[in-house]
Write a structure and sequence with these properties.
The protein is mostly beta strands. It has no helices and 16 strands. The chain has strands at about 1-5, 10-15, 20-30, 35-45, 50-55, 60, 65-75, 80-85, 90-95, 110-115, 120-125, 130-135, 150-155, 160-165, 170-175, 180-185. The strands form 3 sheets. The chain has a 6-stranded antiparallel β-sheet, with no helix packed on it. Strand 15 (about 170-175) and strand 16 (about 180-185) form a beta hairpin. It is flat. The model has no long low-confidence stretch (mean pLDDT about 85). Belongs to the elongation factor P family. Pathway: Protein biosynthesis; polypeptide chain elongation. One of its GO terms (molecular function) is translation elongation factor activity. It is found in: Cytoplasm.
């Protein structure tokens, strides 16, 4: 058992007969009344996100997890195949367990959290950013740069990303995997 002082991002807990991962938390100490912790929880079975408030000192049941490095191999419909980099054992995960599956490039290393009691994968943590090549981008309109104008571009994995007007086909761009947004152009 853990208490609210042990809450951190990435902690997996049992709550309402389900396993949740803490995405965000904030300790709040109002001037009047007892302290509490405001959290955003993501269900690891359904993928739903809910907001919850725990009073200070509340006991929570944490889930013991191990983190392993897996390499993304390929997708087959809604099933994504990964290989453990140490034991070369392969696992198949459903698309719903992944945060941004359309940004996954074959050969990318991800961190998979596994429940030690049941040996079931709980969540997949992608790298903070990923570099992908633009396969299609509409040409930018010259003179349309008075404001921070963007256009949509398709990258090699098939995902669509809003990019600045100067990005062209063949450019490599860095994408934030948490939000799926453009970060910068990469020169090689």
């Amino acid at each position: 058992m853990a208490s609210t002082s042990d809450i951190r991002n990435g902690l997996c807990i049992k709550y309402n007969h389900d396993i949740y991962k803490i995405i965000e938390f904030l300790h709040v100490k109002p001037g009047k009344g007892p302290a509490f912790v405001r959290t955003k929880l993501k269900s690891l079975t359904t993928g739903k996100v809910l907001d919850n408030t725990f009073s200070a000192g509340h006991k929570i049941e944490d889930v013991r997890v191990e983190t392993h490095t897996y390499q993304y191999l390929y997708a087959e419909g809604d099933q994504f195949h990964f290989m453990n980099n140490e034991s070369f054992e392969q696992i198949t995960l459903n698309k719903s367990i992944l945060d941004n599956p359309d940004l996954l490039k074959e050969g990318t290393n991800v961190m998979v959290q596994v429940n030690t009691e049941t040996d079931l994968p709980l969540s997949v943590d992608m790298p903070a950013s990923i570099i992908l090549e633009v396969t299609y981008a509409e040409p930018g309109v010259k003179g349309n740069t008075a404001t921070n104008a963007t256009k949509s571009a398709t990258v090699e994995t098939g995902a669509t990303v809003n990019v600045p007007l100067f990005i062209n086909e063949g450019d490599k761009i860095k994408i934030d995997t948490a939000s799926g947004s453009y970060m910068e152009r990469v020169k090689e």
